[in-house]
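Please think about what follows:
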Amino acid sequence: MTPKERLIHVIATTPGVMKIGPVYTTSGLVVPVIPDLRKLYSLPKALKLITSLLVKDAKKFNIKLLAGIETAGIPLVGAMSVVSGIPMVYVRKKPHTGWNQSIIEGLFAPKARTALVDDALTISKQKTYFIQKLKNVLRIKAILVIWDSSYPARFRVPIAKYRVTVKALVSKYEVMNYMKEKKLMRDDTYQVMRAQTENPMHWHREAKNWKLLLKIRRRGTL
């Protein structure tokens, strides 16, 4: 197996990572099955694999600063910084209300060539927010994530406007296809996940999709 194939296998087979919903996300989406990637942070071998792959991507972009997005990105940039020697900071969703009024925590050189790091990319809303907030302080050149939700290209347009490149270690479809091939996922689960991927905002308004998810939820297995 290649390192990427190993990561797909780990995501697909680690108990509790692929969660059956419905899950209501901070981006305002309703998701039928969602990866709880933070569980992988508790597994040293998995975290080491993820870190090595993310560091490889950071070096491709000649990144000089790693900025972890609160909260899922913080453990990732910590591990990446130790392995690579690239300095790290983390960024808050809201400014600190105490002595530090900034959304950035840590030491950094102004206009440093920076990668935002997080566990996943969905509809780009949160990532665009951080690009806008940081653009006058840091040069955001890349967004590095573990998981790309494989949503339609129109959801990448806000990021593309800032000439920021998105690089994911794996895509949702890669994991879905692997799980289907290895019989870790039934056809009905694949079907409802594909429906949500193709129409992330409104898939659940179709009665057949919602009924299918409720059937999967009652069954309790993918």
About this structure: Residues 24 and 35 are 13 Å apart (CA to CA).
